[in-house]
Fold this protein.
Amino acid sequence: TDIAASMGVDALNISIREALVSSTVAEVERAKAANMTAADMAGVLIKCIRMLKSFGKYSDANNLLKAEFPALESALGKDDLQVGYILFEHGQVYRKLGMGDDVPTLETAILIFEKELGKDHFDTASARMHLGIGHLACHQIQKALDLMKPAVDRIEEIVGPEDKAVVKALFELAEAHRIAGNQEEQTRLLLRSIEVSKAAYGPNHPETANQYMSYGEMLRVSNRDDEAAKYLELARDIFVASLGSGHLMAGHVENRLSSLHINTQLWSKVESHGLTCLEIYKAWYPPEHQFLGHIRAKLARGYVGAGKWKEAKAYAEESLVTLRRYSQDPFLPFCEWSLNQADTHLA
């Protein structure tokens, strides 16, 4: 992000991101060649893992951890604080990859943090928050809430009610309540996260836009279309102004607006938002990525609604080429229906 800002570009394109990922991995090799101490090497590894996570390169992060962590753990000792931090990062990587090892890994990290930092330390509370998120993925909702609510309270107690860390904590707790079906509490937490973000980051910051987007999405799935459009468009405008019109986050909002207008049956808006999203996603994702299949499926549905059968057929067929790579993709029946409608009217 810093490099993109310094270059004055709208977004990091795929080739730039790949070059930065390669450079990040190479930094570990340079550190090894410099004969760093195990403690210093652990610091480099943690920094590189965080960089790879920020680019969504979780498989690369996992491979790097598997290659480097055993020797560091042996050199430092299983109870070393740096080992705890590496486990904390690895637990998050496991969760993103759906590998199922995140909960025990985070539990081990928490034991180390409690011993070395104390049970009330910020990092201990943060690790408990992530452990709760891990339990959510395992459908252990009450266990997740029992971990996350005290963790949010402790984080807020440590850093204050208007700190940036509170924004993330409130957002994650709101997501837990969404999964639990507690919409009233989800709404309260999301509205509060917006206010805290405005105070911590500013009203026109991308993080504040992210909170607007989350709240708008909640309104969209609740069929509160007019309110949802207001918050989603506000988020989109902030992302465009602060990050550029081609940034991935702007694409994500356009995607949600396309979905919203399938509900409202404003087919011209489905088309305009969908095409904008598609162009952004093509710059950020490889051609076979699932998200490209999803947005083409939405465009096909919009063209069916508008009676543009040739366009509907073309986008549905292109979407199916992508989505059939993935087993049981939820958009497959949706897309097949659009193709069937198009074929029927073109026959």
Remarks:
- Residues 1-11 have pLDDT under 50 and may be disordered.
